[in-house]
Amino acid sequence: MLLQTLIAENPSDCRSELSRKICRLFNWVQPNGILRDMVCRSLLLKLENAGHIKLPPRRGLPPQLREKSNCQTDLFSDNVFITDDTSAIHVPIRSLYPLSIIQVRRTKAETLYKHLVNQYHYLGYTQPVGEHLKYIIYCANRPVACISFSSAPRHIGSRDRFIGWDPQIRRNNIHLLAYNTRFLILPWVRVPHLASHILGLTARRISEDWQQMYNHPLYFLETFVDTERFAGTCYKAANWIYLGVTTGRGKNDLTHQKNRSIKAVWGLPLAKDFREKLCHEQT
Questions:
Q1: Least CB-packed of 50, 121, 144, 186 within 10 Å?
Q2: Correct CATH for 64-278 of 3.40.50.2300, 1.10.760.10, 3.40.630.30, 3.40.50.300
């Protein structure tokens, strides 16, 4: 098997190096020419779990992710360092101005994002597959929140009815949507209206950031809110639109039975003519 041979011939390669070599070997790239590295790594893990290949051992996590203390970054050098400053921030939002929202995907500060989300978000950190961006929001040099967006799910009934596209157009244009996968206000931060303010800051810049990273814009954002935990108040305050609920079955369901909590679906158009953009073939 070609993959087994490639692994055997490169015993010193880590998993990410192998993944990149495989992408180059098969010319497995995104439309903008970037290697489909994370998709390839996901496939390799599935092949290993099925017993078809044996991957090299996982390399140890960097110290920043092993520490149980808070991290911060230098905004200008992207250096990650550790601090124990978790003192409470409980002030009016105007006291935090100006906030800085920093896109950290493919920077050294991405390590900080992973650490904060893994330690303080109730779902922890999982590595997104496909196109995605990650942001850290700072007050001065101190992080107060994290937010990320990833490629949108292929089919969400309430969303698709709201947009009004047919299945073929949806398959062709789904890359023009992004899904808010994680949103974390750090637990020692208690600032009224901060969450909706961050959603607004992100919405104003994300299409341009996506264009810069992936060579295409975004016209619509979406997210799922666990109705057993949250009411979606900050999304409503940031002018997101309630679209409906999920079926509770998950994208890989084969039983057609509810197997997870119901999620409320919220969406945000990023352009006045978003339906025209999404419901027609892109040139």
A1: 50
A2: 3.40.630.30
Domain limits of the chain? Answer: 2-49, 64-278
Angle, to 10 degrees, between the axis of helix 15-25 and the axis of helix 37-49?
Answer: 110
| Burial of 249 (C-beta count, 10 Å sphere; 0-12/13-18/19+) | middle
- Tell me the mean pLDDT in the region 20-31: 80
Distance CA 268, CA 73 (A): 30
Listed in sequence order, the residues at least 6 apart from 88 whose beta carbon sits closer than 8 Å to its beta carbon are: 188, 189, 190
Instruction: Find tokens 């109705």 and name the residue.
Output: 227
Which pTM does this prediction carry?
Answer: 0.73
Q: 181 — phi, psi (to 5°)? A: -85, -35
DSSP 224: E
pLDDT digits (tens, 9 = 90+) for 79-102: 555 455 678 899 999 999 889 999
pLDDT of residue 68: 41
Q: What is the Cα gyration radius of the chain?
A: 20
How far apart CA 281 and CA 283 sit, in angstroms, is: 6
Q: How far apart are CA 268 and CA 147, in angstroms?
A: 16
